[in-house]
Amino acid sequence: MPSMTAKQILLSLIIVCCCLTFATAQQSHYKVYAIGFARSGYPFMEADWAAGASKAKHLDITFSIWLIKGDKGRNILVDAGFYNDTKEAKEFQLTEYTRPDSALRKLNVKPEDITDIIISHPHWDHIDGIDLFPKAHFWMQKEDYNYFVGQAWQTPKDTGGFIERNVRKLLELNLNGRLTLINGDNKEIMPGIRVFTGSKHTYASQYTLVNTGTNRIILASDNVWIYANIVQMLPPVSGGTLSPTGYINAMKRMKSMVSDIRYIIPGHDGKVFQKFIEASHNIVEIK
Ligand SMILES: [Zn+2]
Asked: What is the mean pLDDT of the chain?
């Protein structure tokens, strides 16, 4: 093979540089926020949520949505929160409730600015607010959707945590072409944003891995209910998963995806709001 001339080498280097510059420009950058919009006034202990955890440690149960703010005008939510008019919401003796769309305004994000919503699972506290965001496109696991709108309502019913009106809201989104059903585990659904299954919090619940451009963050939602689950590697109490082994294995997998356990954000633990820098009242930036 003839050796390359200086001119050819220079040309090759220029091509490599151009490719690298292009790749860097393509990389999306994200800021990630946890937005607490309600707390439970009920005196929960850790053992009420994580099987085998402390019966003496009080637990501040919070309800959150998570904002992934892109640098190219994309504003993605993980979960949509809920209205506080249902019996399910009232059972939690809510304090400090702010409707999720109003809570977002504290970050200068309007409901119509939300471009996408990733639904981790269809329990009322994560899906009831889907009609608050008029322009959003929705992303949900196909198997979770099928079970939620179908089998769950057959006899014998298996509808714990499900609310009928949310089935209707979700069907409406699908009829209007605003829902994408994701077919299984480990799927990149947007640049730098990948979803995973296996925890079986619901039939096919999913968690979200965000590559922010500088870090990797997992928005676990209820695939890690509280810190005691992930720190002590404990499954949730009965009703928290269809597969305790699957839940534990998923948490092991999550730990392998991030540089520090700090970047795995549980669904309902109020300590999230003490671990990170406050961006506004009950809102922290995860970084
Ligand atoms: Zn929940």
From this structure: 93
